[in-house]
């Protein structure tokens, strides 16, 4: 049996599909063909989470046509589509399956899919995507319905830090992946702290000075800091390194604070996470990548809120935020603050983030 999974949203959304992909294989004993955005899916293929990969480019019709042709040569049994988009529905309509096509309910859903499910918006997105498996497996549906999700409903808290360590995620719903490529060798005497100060959305970025102050404090205590990010985030990482070193003066070795931004693939970044002790990040893809290896994570939330459902899907995580009437200002944030203050990030002090980091490291 082979099942196609169509998830063409952002990297974070794709990573949050991992519980669905893991349980899909476990419940149906199937091979998985993944359709996703170009450049995102290689990691899941390398980790053995999926068996074949078909990447598409937004706005490039040929890439969608080629993916449909490739899928139609694979004798698919089912298609499951956690991404809600009319364009994605049109794509799904071109793919032939012998069984079911399933997705979430929408005004266009019945035209493209044989079965749909009301999206459980009260739950985190990892669980929302996973819930689609109920449409393909009666056994999984029974397991899902017998579980009490009350402790994992989306948090409505907006004015204080949210500590997720006591909110148990069932093992079968986690993002953790066991792989020989992720052998962990975390050191307790000499810690490595990863810092990801970038984001695709400008207003999701905490202040560079805030990051620099926390980084300087970590290095001053004798732990190593490695900044990570995409090629587009090289400059912001370099600025944080420079500012942190200036705060420390000449008393610390420069190799205690380094940047690897733009140097690593997603797999290499994940391997680095598997051998580190903590991640400090914005509400970004790095936060979700860390959950694959179970790396404790401190995430800084500004324009977005936890009620959206995009919390770090990680048992060892703390979200740092401040309650403001202007939050949220949009689903993803904006290029610039709509009210020209960016208070949601500027009001978060480095002491708040340092305290959360110390809680997880202890």
Describe this structure as you would to a colleague.
This protein is of the alpha/beta class and 362 residues long. It has two domains: 2-153, Rossmann fold (3-Layer(aba) Sandwich), CATH 3.40.50.2000; 174-361, 3-Layer(aba) Sandwich (Rossmann fold), CATH 3.40.50.2000. The chain has 14 helices and 13 strands. Strands 7-13-12-11-8-9-10 form a seven-stranded mixed β-sheet, sandwiched between helices. A six-stranded parallel β-sheet has the order 3-2-1-4-5-6, with helices on both faces. The longest helix has 15 residues, at 234-248. It is globular, with a radius of gyration of 21 Å. The model has no long low-confidence stretch (mean pLDDT 93).
Short description:
This protein has 362 residues and is an alpha/beta fold. Helices cover 34% and strands 15% of the residues. The chain folds into 2 domains: 152 residues, Glycogen Phosphorylase B (Rossmann fold), CATH 3.40.50.2000; 188 residues, 3-Layer(aba) Sandwich (Rossmann fold).
Please identify which CATH superfamily of the largest domain we are dealing with.
Glycogen Phosphorylase B
CATH top level assignment of the largest domain: Alpha Beta
Mean pLDDT: 93
Under CATH, the topology of the largest domain is which?
Rossmann fold
Instruction: Sketch the major β-sheet.
Output: 7 strands, mixed
Number of DSSP-assigned strands = 13
| Ends distance | 46 Å
- Give the uncertain stretches in residue-range form: none
